[in-house]
Amino acid sequence: MQEVLYEGKSKLIFRGEDDASILIRYKDTATAFNGEKKEELAGKGRLNAEISNIIFAYLAENGVKTHLIRVVDETSVLVRKAEIIMVEVIIRNVAAGSFSKKYGVPEGTELKNTIVEFSLKNDALGDPMINESQITALGLATKDDLEEMTSQALRINRLLCELFEKAGIRLVDFKLEFGRAGGEILLCDEISPDSCRLWDMDTGKKLDKDRFRHDLGDVLEGYRDVLRRLKNNVG
Fold this sequence. Notes:
This protein is of the alpha+beta class. It is built from six helices and 13 strands. The protein has helices spanning about 45-60, 95-105, 130-135, 145-165, 210-215, 220-235; strands at about 5, 10-15, 20-25, 30, 35-40, 70-75, 75-80, 85, 85-95, 110-120, 170-180, 185-190, 195-200. The strands form three sheets. Strands 8, 9, 10, 11, 12 and 13 form a six-stranded antiparallel sheet that branches. It has a five-stranded antiparallel sheet with strand order 1-2-3-7-6. Strands 4-5 form a two-stranded antiparallel ribbon. Helix 1 (about 45-60) runs parallel beside helix 6 (about 220-235). It is globular.
């Protein structure tokens, strides 16, 4: 039996083929509100894995460096071992979620420019927002690291907006994680309906984890719709 190195809310981490790799397996667990709401949704892990793998392959084809080495099976991927930078990058194209609540801006409001936010990757503290001077003061990342992460995040945003628009989906916002490996900063973790807000461009229907957060029903149907549309518009 493989040794579990770490178990997160939605993934299991195992030893890889060598010291430079690890195996990630997606779980069927759905969580929201920092783990306060939790449920097992059969097939969710497979859907997230397939969606994220399609997106990571698309980004790699367009010059984005990622940790993905290869897909192992329908819920598992082999990736480069990286030192995760404990700062998440959040990109917002449209007002929604915590941004709307915090600043009193109605969901769906068009923003005059793309917003880049940072949050501390710390579940115990609720992943609080953190600014650049706080990040460098705490030694979480250097100014150069943050510039590179921001540049990559904005490039990824442009690529994904184009991809999702072809699929009739509006990319509202999403979060990214980065890590260091071999002297490079790589895109890590996943990009899926768990980490993005995705709305149908015509109807505004939510196709992401907000369906679980707010009891909108048909959670996995939204994920399946995203997967179907991506398959029809990639390659």
